Each structure stands twice: as C-alpha cells, then as structure tokens.
Amino acid sequence: MGGQVIQVHSYQQWNQYMQQSCSCVCTPPVIVFFADRCCAASCTMEQTFVNLASTYSTLTFLRVEVQEQMGIVNANCLNQTPTFLFFKGGKRVDTVIGAIPAQLQQTVQRHSVCQIHQTPHISCPIRAVPACPIHRGRAY
Question: Where is the Thioredoxin domain (predicted)?
C-alpha cells in the first residue's frame, strides 16, 4: 500500500481489507497493529510500525485504535495491546503480542517473502499473473 499505515475507521473498512487479502503462500499478508493511544507500550511501537510500513512498502499495514473499534477487537479476541496480527484470506496466520520491536521485525521479514520461491512477494514469478492462479479471479 505504498509504505503507509492505513487507519481503520469502521468495521466495513476492516471487512474490505480482509476480503481483498488472498490466502495463497505467494501473496503477502495484511499486517494489523491493534493499538491503544493510552497505552505506553502501543505508543512505543508506533514508530517501529511506521518504519516497517515504509521498509516493506509492498505489504499492507493497517492500524486499529482499540477504544474506537471494539467490534473488530472483540471479533479477534484481543485482550492486550499492542497486538500485531497477520492475516491471509481473512484468516489469522501469525501474531506478535507486546512491545518487542525485534520480534515484530523478524515476523514481518518472514512474511515478506514468498514461501514457495523464497523471493520477495513483489518478485515472485506467480505474481506476474494478474489474478491468483489458485483463487481464480481474485486479483493481487
């Protein structure tokens, strides 16, 4: 999404991003930062998340303010901030809990490469096809 963090303002917007994500191993995840502006640990991780979005500009980075989006928080059974969830095809594939920049960095790095070809998602040979070959018709 161009190296930016997208603030999720509604459950409808959340659903759009979850529906757009593809579950194939060749496609990157949607990475979501569940933050609370009243939480010191969340504030500590804010710049780390922004930096990761800039570094991995081909990945989608979302931010959910927990006090404003309790429906999304409850749907994902969250009870702690900061929490970082990784989604593919609308399903959770990984989680990082707490203010641990190195762990978040490692997890983003691991998900930034195609699991089949071990190349960055942007240069994966399957991505040359305009639509996912497994989920026909669903564009990347």
Answer: 8-109
User: Domain containing 89: what range?
Assistant: 5-128
What global pTM score does this model have?
A: 0.85
Domains contained in the chain, number: 1
**Does residue 6 sit in helix, strand or coil?**
strand
72-84 confidence digits (pLDDT tens)? 999 999 999 999 9
- For residue 109, being part of any structural domain is answered with yes
Higher pLDDT, 29 or 48: 48
Q: Is residue 88 part of a domain?
A: yes
Count Cβ neighbours within 10 Å for each residue of 34-73 and write b for 16 or more, e otherwise: bbbeebeebeebeebbbebbeebeebbbbbbbbeebeebb
Q: What is the pLDDT of residues 31-64, one digit of tens each?
A: 999 999 999 999 999 999 999 999 998 889 999 9
Which residues, listed in sequence order, are joined to residue 85 by a DSSP beta bridge? 32, 95
E strands, the chain, in order: 5-7, 30-35, 60-65, 83-88, 91-97
Distance between start and end Cα atoms, the chain: 12
The CATH number that applies at residue 27 is 3.40.30.10
